Each structure stands twice: as C-alpha cells, then as structure tokens.
User: Fold these one by one.
Assistant:
Number 1:
Amino acid sequence: MILRFANLEWKQFFRSSYWQKSMALNVLMVIFALYFILIFLGLGLGLYPLLRELYPESDPFVMVNRFLFFWLLTDLGIRFFLQKLPVMNVKPLLVLPLKTSKIIHYVLRKSALSFFNFLPMFTAIPFGIMLLLKGYAPWQVITWNVLILLLTLLINYLNFIIERLSSKTELSFLPIIALISGVFALNYFGLISFENLVERGVNSIVQNPLYLLIPFALLVGLYRVNYISLKENLYIDQSLKSKTKEANTTDLKWTRRFGSVAPFLQLDLKLIWRNKRPRSTVFILIMGLLYGLIFYPNPHYQDMQWLYVFVGIFVTGVFMINFGQFIPAWDSGYYKLLMSQNIKYKEYLTSKYLLMQMSAVIMFVLSIPYVYFGWDILLIHFAAMIFNIGVNSHILLFGGSFNRKRIDLNQRAAFNYQGTGAVQWLIGFPLLLLPMLFFYVPYHYLGFEAGIATVIIIGVIGVVFHQKIMQMITAKYIDSKYAMIDAFEQTN
Amino acid sequence: MIHVKDLSKCYGQTTVLHIPSLDIPKGQTFGLVGNNGAGKTTFFNVLLDLIKPTTGHIEIDGIQVNKSEAWKPLTAAFIDETFLIGYLTPEEYFYFIGELRGLNKADVDTFVLQFEELFNGEILGKKKYLRDLSKGNQKKVGIVAAMLGNPELIVLDEPFANLDPTTQIRLKKLLKTLTENLQATVLISSHDLGHVTEVCERIVVLEKGEVIKDLATSAETLKELEHHFSV
C-alpha cells in the first residue's frame, strides 16, 4: 500500500507542468542541498578540533552537549519557515476502501524521510566517528547518535504541530517567534536554564542508554498528537464547519484616481485581504520591517555598509518579493475569465506594478525611524526603494510570465500549503544580491556616495524606461498565454 | 457573426476537433450537442482564444480571434466555475465584470434586478462570497454576468447542468427572450436534448470532433436526435 501511495505522489510530482517547466529551479535546489550537505559534513569533521582549540580546558563532547539547546532551537525556527507540512491529495482516497489510519501513517512517516532530518546526521555521525577515534566508549557514542536522531525527529513532529496550529491563526508567524524568543529569553535571563537542562539530560542519557526510552516515548507521544489532529482534518466538510465568514464589502473609492487600472487594483486589494495565503504576505511586512534590528544595532556590522544594502532591499521589498513572485498565479483560479474578458493585459499588469510600487514607498516611510542608527541607513533605504521600484519590480513581473504553478485560493484549511517552502525564498536571492553588487563595486573603489549614486541611477533608469519595459513584459505574457492557461487548469 | 475555417485541434496523433467550415449568422441561437469528448468545450475554448488551434482559425464579426483582441468587447462567456472569482461577493463580481464592459454601478444594479426571480432571493444582499455559494447558485451568477452589458455574442457551456428544475425552466425562458429582444447570438452546449431543442433554432451534433449533423430545429428534431444517440 505504501508503495502505491508513493507511486501516486511520484506521478503527481513528475507529471505536473510545474516540474516540467522549471527544471532550472529544481537543479538549483539540488545544488543548494549538496551545498548544505557539504557544510554540515565539514562542521561534523571540524567540530572536534575546533572546540579543542576554542575551549582547550574542557571536553569537546561536553561542550557540544552544552550547545545542543541552541542547535535544537535554531533547527525548529528554520524548519518552520522552510519545511513544508506533509501534504497529500487525500480527497480522492477518502471514499476508497482504505483505512484512513493508513493514509495518515503514510503521510506522517513520509515526513521522517525529509531532507531536514538527514542534515543534522551529516554533522552528528562524523562527529561521533571523531569521538570514537579519540577513544570515547563506543556505546556512549552510539547512544549519543541515536539520541540526536530522536531529537531531530522530535523537532520534526513538533514543527508540524506548531505549523498546523499557526496556520489557523491570522498572524501565522507570531506563535513560532513568540515561542522561540520566549524560550530563548527564559534561558538567557536565567529564569529557567534550558541550556543546562538539555545538557544534563543528554549527559545522563549518554551515561545510561536506558534513558533513551524517555525521548523515544516523547516522540511516540508527538507522533500520536499529529495523528489525531490529522485524523480530525480528514473530513472534507472541515472547512465548511469553520463558519462561512460574513462578507464585508467596501468600494475602495480612492482607487478611482488610477483610472482604467482601478478595477484591477480593487480586485488585487480584495485578493490580498480576503484570502489567507496572500494575506500572510502582508504580515511578513512586520517581520521585514524588524529585520533591520538584527543588523543595525550590532557594532559587528558597522563597517559593512554593503550589507546594509541587502537589508535595505529586503526591508523595502519584502512584500514585493513575496507577493510579486506569484504573479499571475494569484489569479490562476479565474485566469480563463480574465483572458476572455474585455481586458487589456497591460492594465492588468500595471495594477500589479502599482501595488508593488506602493508597498516599496510605504515600507520606506515606515523604516525611516532606522535613521536613529545613522543617516547613511536612511540614504541606503532610499536608494534601495528606488532600485526596488525601478528594477526588482520589473524583474518580478517578467519572471511571472514563467509562472506555471496554480495557487488554489478557494481551497481552505487543512491541506493548502501550496507555494510555500524553500523555493519561495530562493527566488528572492538574485533580487537581493544584484543591488549589493551594484553598490559594492563603486563603493569599494570610489566610496559610499558613489555606491549609493550607482544604485539610485540604475533604479531611475528602470523607472524612466518603465513604459518600454512594460511593453516587453506584456508581449512576453501574451506569448505564454496558452501555456499559462493550460498549467493553471491543473489542480495538482 | 462566427466564421470557422479549416479548424482543427490535435493533441499528438489524436484529432479532437476538425471543422472544415461553419458559419453562425448574427442573432442565431445555436446549440452544440455531443457525447463526452465530442469536442464541445474544446470548440468554445478555441473560440475564446484560450486554446491555440492546430490549423485554421475562427473569426468573430470578421476579427480573427488569435490575431486581434477586438472581439472581446463583443463577447461574453461562462464556461465553468473558473470564470468566477471566489473571493468576491456576487454584487462585486457583477460590478467588476460590468466595469470591464463599460457599465457603471447603477447600470449594473438595474440590470441585475431583473433577475431577482432567477436568483430566488439566495444571491443578492446575502453578504456571502462566491466561493461559499452552492454550485447551482454559482452557475446562476456566472450566466447572468455573461449577459451584462448587452454582448453581441454569448457563449454558455452546459448552462443547464447543476441547476434545479425550476431554474432550468426559468433559464430557458430567459434565453429565448434574450435572443428575441436583444438580437444577441447565443451559443449553448448541452447534454440535455430536450432543453436544446426547446431553446435553439439550430442544432449541430459533434462526434469525435467532427460535425455530423446540422439541423434547423423543427417538431421532429428531438426525435431525430434521440434516435441518433440511442445506439
């Protein structure tokens, strides 16, 4: 039976037009995966000598266990944003003579094979081998490795519970951020020393392998919780039960001033506000806005102004990157309607452009308080905003014409997580790196002002040629019209 | 109004549509009948330039659909639910479509009001999003929206499917008055032989993508069609 499920998913993946059209992206994902494997492998091999050197007076094995708490916390945080919940198209299977428990077990067990679970082992196993070579007791090392595996799986299933809970709330990032920073703060201010707890726990387990039963029991418990909550979600009327919200209509009169673009702008605003997926991109704004706080107050980065460009682009473009890369997939549900109505493609695209442009300006205005950390930051943010408006928004629009993956807005609740995951962030990289490069070269040779000027000038060029660029982009969209219609028809 | 020339659509080796020539004059109510896979929806999709034909082309009012977009203001269509925007209320959807067709809010309001009977009090002013309406009610919204702004050509794919009996009868009445008063050309596809013969002046039977019967509706038409399909 498991084989058959796997077969189904295999077909779903390889037969989707998304896969066939975006080979390049898949290759990129593989390269990234290999890159991370290498880094973790390197860490595993280098950890022992590194700790020896940094803390010559203490046992590296003990030191590792001391840091384990931070490792687990980071793992949880990263997973939340990058790892997808295990998904399967369950509806067609529900009426077949299959035990639902089988389906759920399959979905849950599959997730144990996630890349994120293998990654830590690339560090843990080489480190274990190093320990063996240094003469630690084999049964201790094996126990430790088993323990790491169990902890990784614990984090895996814990993450699903958190993701499922937070996908029900509007501010989907808040719970995880609150949890992680809460635990971290409790630890940091010494109220509850999780650091010590984890260390002591690990040490006693390593001393007595029988204690492994405790994390194992925890794992079984978490698995059980996941099982139960998935089982509840396996009814298709689940979404109906969760009340049909009363529609509140607004006519958004202020959009009128944009003339013929107005109806599309209204549509886009409603799209964002009335559907959970796009609405979550709005909440990313809050995250993006606070992003600068990681860098600016830190004296460590004081002399790395090129890094500020990265932050600036991110802060003023966070909405743009998250919303823009799914143009026109947001409208995939009714793309055929748009294509057969009395609509000019250019107006449709201009509305999206306007939206991105407005977001950049708003984000810039909101980020003005960062001037507290220096005038140069304000200047950089301004340049970044111009660059986002002039260049990045056009790139995103252009990239959209290659979009072949449907987003199903109507499908609510339980199993709708399309288009989230690692790929989403991957696409943002060139948008962030390019302006850094444009800044860095003149900055390095001529100084700060030259760097800023270059970024602004390139952005302004984009704005000046806006009409021309839009014409090009529109032509590209018309060109791929049939392929897009066809791809958006596919439900998987 | 519609002129089809050497039209064919192939997927690999299989031809799913092959119509050497077909003309539909202005004001005609045209019915398309055929079993599953006969090519009805494919024909409509090519007509609306949603699928690229392998050979040949279709003209609407002399405008070749895959060359120019000038046919769009004349044409309105409702093929399936993907023509609806789920997160709008019915009113907002009507306003949106109306605006694209050059109607202001007041125009749309008065136009929609005449369908009160068809809507049966379940659609307007209910503060519900389209995605939360039943399949049948969604269909009603789509069909009415396709009539907004007096288009010269209305394309409806299976308008009777999913509707309750009362609405089917009301819709038939509506379609008849539409062609009588407004001189619109209406294209309908249906599996229900009774409905099409009642509504349409002309019925074309498609089989494996080819036109095998082209009938002007008369008292005998229903019998003939039933005989044809009862193999």
Number 2:
Amino acid sequence: MADAEIPEVTDFLAEQAPFAAVPRTDLERLARRMTVRYARRGTLLMSVGRGNDEVFVVRSGAVQITDDSGTLVDRGEEGTAFGTTALDGRPSRFDVEAIEDSLLLVLPSAAFHELATAHPAVGDFFSQQRASRLRHALQAMPHAQRRTAVLQTRLRDLVRREPITTTGDATVREAAQLMAREQVSSLLVVDGGRLTGIVTDRDLRTRVLAAGLDSSTPVSAMMTADPVTAGPDDIAMELILEMTSRNIHHMPVVGGTDGRTPLGMLTSTDLMRLERANPIHLVGDIAKADDLGTLVVLSQRLPRIIDQLVHEDATADGIGRIVTAVGDALEQRLIGLAERELGPSPTAYAWVVLGSQARLEQGPGSDQDNALVISDDATPADLPWFEALARFVVEGLVACGYPRCPGDVMATNPQWRRPLREWRRTFTQWIDEPVPDAILRSAIFFDLRTVHGDDTLVEELREQIRRSAPRGTRFLAHLARNAAANEPPLGFFRGFVLEREGAHKDTLDLKRGGFHAVVEVARVHALSRGLPQVSTSSRITAAAGAGGLSDETAADLHDAFEFIRYVRLLHQAKQIRAGEPPDNFVAPSELSSFEKRHLRDAFQVVRSAQQTILHSHPLGHVT
Amino acid sequence: MIFSRLGVDHRRARQARWAGQAPPGPVRDYLGSAPPGPRTDVSDLRLLALDLETTGLDPRTDRILSVGFVPVDGLRISLAGAEQLLCRADVEVGQSAAVHGITDDALAGGIELRDLLERVAAALTGRVLLAHHAAIETGFLSAACERELGVPLPITAVDTMELQSRVLRSHSGEDLPPGALRLGTARAHLGLPRYAAHEALTDALACAELYLAQVDRLSGGRPMTLKALQR
C-alpha cells in the first residue's frame, strides 16, 4: 500500500516558491520526511553562532531574521524558509525569532540535501538569500564605484576624430597619399559605408614595397579584410585585453544598426595616453626580444604593470588575463629562441600550459606548470631534442621570475614530456581507474591549453576528456571531494580562521578554501558535463547554460571568485610595492571592515558550492 | 498514592486478561503493552492524533468509514507516520456522504474493519490517543474491537476539546460561546491555519497541531505531565 498523501502539507508546499518546480510525487515524499513544530511568539528558532540540522518553512505565523549586530535582515510570513545557511552544524549567522505564534514545517538536513541535489533549482533558491548582499558588495568596490577610472572609459569617448576612410578600388598610391595628408598610420576601407578592411603603415611596407607590388594595385588586394573590431560601448580595459592577446596595434571602432559602420580608429598610442605602463607594449617587446637577457629585463616590467592596473581599478579577471598574456608571450618567445638554437623540431608537438595559466588566471608570482605532447610519429632518436627544448624553456622561465613547479609538473620531467598515445593512456587511467592521490595531483592536467605548436594533438586529448569524464563517476566523486576538502577559513561566530603556525601565522589563506575552491568546483561542473571551457568564469557560465547551475548561483560564484581574487590582488600589489614576493596570505588587520564582511559572504558562497558539488557527486560505498 | 497505584495495577491486570482472550496479532500486543505513564512530561510524551469518520455518532449502531492518524513525539508531529485508511463496509453510507465526502464506491476499495483495527492498534502501542472530542474515537474503536475480536480496547486519551475549554476559561472564566470548542474555531483562536475539514487525516493533523499550540499555552514553557493534561 502506498503511503498516505498529506494533502494539507503537500498542497501548501506546492504553492511556495522554492518547491514550485518540484513534481507532486516528490513533494508527497518530502512532506512525509517533515515534522511539524509550534513556536510561540518570542521563541528563538536559530541563534547566531549555533549550528542546526534542519530547514524550516513557516506554515503559519511570522518570523524575523536579524544579523549578529541586531540589524533586521528579513521578515517573513507563511512560506518563508530559513536554516539552509547553518546546516550540518555550521554556525548560523542570524537570529531567527518567531514574531507571531507560528507553525513550522521542519525538514532534516539530509532530506534537504537530497532534495537540492535532485532539484538544483531548490538549492539555488536558498543561496539567493545571500546573493543580493554579496552582489551589492561587489558593486560598491572601488573599481566599480569610480566609473570614471580610465580603464572603464567607453571607446566612444576615446575616439578623437572621424575615421579616415578609403575604398577598395582606390590604388595603393592614393591610400598612401591620404595617410600622409591626414598624418595617420592606418586607413579604414569601406564599401557603401560598411567596413570591409584595414590598411596600416606596416602593410604598405611589408605587403607592397617589400613584395614589389605596383603602386597602382587596388587597396582591396592588399588590405586585411574583415578585421577585428570593437564597439562604441566596449570599455578601454576590454580593448587592451583584445589588443594584448592578439598583439595588434590598430582597432577599428564600428557601430550603427548593422554594426559595421566605422566610427573611428583606436591605436595602441591612444591607449598609451590612458596609462603609462601598458601591457600591450610589453607583449610586443617580448615578441621581438632576441635573447634571454632581454626577456629577463622585460619580465621585470610585469610587477609594475600589475601595480598600475590595480591602481586603475581593473578587475581581477582582467588582470589575470593580462598577466597570462604576458606569460604566454614569454613562453612562446622562449620556445622560438630554443628552436633557433636547437634547429627545427624533428616532428610535430604541442607545448601545453596547465592550471592557472591555462585558465587565463595567472597571478603575480605564479609558478610554472607545463608539459609537452609529442606526435606519435616521434622516434626514440627524436626525444633528446624535446628534452633540450624543455630545459631551455623551463630554465628561461625561472630566469624570468616564474619559479619551478614544486610538484615537478614541468616539461623537463620525462613523465610530462611524452607522445600523444601515452598521454591518452594516462588520461584513461586518471578517469577510469581513479586513485585518490593521483587525482589530487592530476587535477591541473584537466586545465590545459596549447601556447605553441600543433594544437590538433591537444584537441585529441581534450576530446577524450569531454567524452569520458562525464562517465567517470568515481573520478568525478574524488574530484568533488578534493574541491570540498579545503574549507573556507570561516569559523564559529562568523570569525575568520587564521593560520595557526608557520611563516603565515595569524593570516588568512585566500587561496586554498577561497578562490581556488571555486576553480575546483567549476572544474567538476565542466568535466561532469563534457564542457570544453577552461577558464573558471567561462566554466561557471557554461555550467549554468547547461542547466547544472541556476543563473543566480552562477552569478554568486562569479562574484565570489572575483571578490576574493580582487582582495588578493590588492594585497599582492601592496607586497610588490614593498619589494616583497606576492603571496595569498592576508592579515585581517590589512582588511577594511567592508572587505571583511563581504569576504565572509564570498566564503559562504564557496562553502555552499562545495557542499552542493559534494552531494551531487557522492563517492558511494565503493572506494 | 497507594490506591491509585492499585487502581493502575487493577486496570493492567484486567487488560492482561483481555490480551489472553484476543487472537495473536497487533491488538493482543497492544493489550499486553503499557501506555505512557501519567507522570510522563509533555516533552517526552508520545501520542497518536487520530480521527474517525463514521456513519453517525452511536458506537453501537454506527460504523467506522475511515481513520486518519499521525504520531506526535513530544512536541513534534512526525509526518512520516501519517496514515489514512478506508474501511470496507457492508452498510450503505447514504446521507453521511454529504458530510465526510466518502462515497460507497470509495469504501468498496477499503480494507476490512479488522485490518483497520489492527493497524490502529499497532500505531497506538506505546502511545496516548489524541483526538478532538476523544470519546467518539475511543468509543467507536473499542466497540468495533469487541465486535470483531471479542475484546474491548482500553485507550488512554488526551482530548483537545477539553484542553481548549481550559485554554479559553483561563482567559475569561465566562461561559463559552456556542461553537467555541469546535476544531476549526479552536484552531483559529490559536492562530493556526484553516484546513478543509472532514477528511480523517487532515482532521488528525489539525488536531495534532492544535495540541501543540494548546500545550504551549497551558504549560507556559514549564514542565507539564500527562496527568495534568487529563485533569
């Protein structure tokens, strides 16, 4: 015989927002796991610092939620739910008091976790309660507060004159004359008012004079067709990112209803005016450097650029991308210098970066993580060449200020310098026969990106990962466990948990249970759904797009990730200025009360994301 | 003190005799077990809120149509134990269908009265019965048990209607207005939500919730025994 339905409870739940999406049969089961409590007006249902094991839904009556300073946070009547933030013995951050005689439906935490796993929308609903406050904090951060900060300038405000244009059928000589008359280094080529191409000084040199083309050649034959463009509402920061990563110096700004009407041209010189230490030039200079000594000198410009960017109120995400672009350029140039010294490679290969650099999240002082994927055509006689390449690049990076990986994840380690087929076997082992220790060490290999060489080799590995990771239940469970292993440094009574001993005594580790936990959670989300994204923020967005996270939870994670990294950047910029090596350990005395409060919120988001990932990938009984 | 203990012993002896007469099964187990003692505090008291739908008010002539019950453990209602059972009856439901909404067709899908009694006895073992106007429930269950199994069913009960009159009298000391003790009115008085009446399980749950609110009023948060509830 089926269990009796309890219509008064099921009907009620079905009308409440968090449960609206849960099918009736599940609600019936849910109702049977609840108990009912009565609380007289004035009863304290939860109190700050005390943990509980239950989620409450107000059936009738009303409750009031206040924070530890007595500030009213929320007041709710019938249908209000609370308790999810203090589950499993975690300290509550709120007092919850019945302000009317209230009847409460009470759900044990285990049942709540099961519900939230089966119906992510339910779990997401509850984490929204924190969300609005954290988002509010981010908006109040300096980089958003000072909208006039130069890097936030809209491109429409940077364009200083009408675009100088020509048409595709004009001759190269006419184009050159126009450029000389207007004293510009580039022209936009238009057809019927729409942008079709771009011609630069450099093009005239390399594609016309050096190639011996006649000056009557039409512009359309030598222009760069369909160039990369920017929009008038893009901000300077984005433009710098784009030009830095592509190593280009001219960017047409287009608009209009068709999005192809030229509005003007922005050059790296325009951006130079915005700021003195410009990463675009650093990347350009690195690409031109002719020896290791020059690279070492150039790389010393990076800390100053970071300091400058922090001052300009760039976002942590933007700075991560710029630091990565500089790191990529250095690595690429070192490989170029190595190939010049060692001669051309005997067979195809890919130089791969792993971890934070692969995710475009490199920070100041990051150590190097790299590997070599060599074509299966390689013969044993070819291998010494790759060993020499690895040594050249790894040592070069050390000289440029990128410390060796303490875990020896570098191409100099023969284990990480292998033919494709061996890499395939290794990934198969990691995914299909997971060993907990190995998973801990292998996690960064699932964030991989080619910076030089034949990316089709790496694409085979990525394809293998996308295909097999979603099936690797135990692999994912172990990965989820690792993601939840480092708790955010939050303790009882909302206090921070400080490092107890060692060099970082009495500081807060922003990385382990902080932004790095977000990295790990996002990785599990991406791998479990076979998503190709590598950077943490794109993984979060993609996981939300694939239905694995609600938009709200995704927004929370984005915000928490950005906030914690931003606090770290402020700390690191301070260290750089003081001539100290940048690290992740911040003393609470360094933080403003604003930063402390919102860091707690961010850590809370991290904690709940860790719980969710743990519950959606249970390890089961077989380990 | 001694007398009351003798009284308890006497009742238990009689109950044990009946247990010997009952056929093996939940009813016999129930008769052989002890209900919670009178000095049990409400915070530990285990009850079974129960409501019967019947064809009328006379246990001798009217029949049980359905039963709904839900356990109360201390000051919490455990929805996991909620049950509603329909009884297959030979009698015509007739007029009473207008009140409780149970039609002859629905009853045809029910269980035998004996099965129903055994299910109730099993759920009630170790618990005190809780009902609104409990005499109806205890009277019907005992009479039915005597007919079906040859033994009466002695039941320790707490009556929320009685408790409500105490809640109201402690307020006014006046005569109560007519209808003040009805389940829905009593609930409204204590700020509990309005339920659709006259389905056995809903009424049992409504009664259980009412009990929690009444205990809160009457005890004022201080210890209170079963005996004090039955005063």
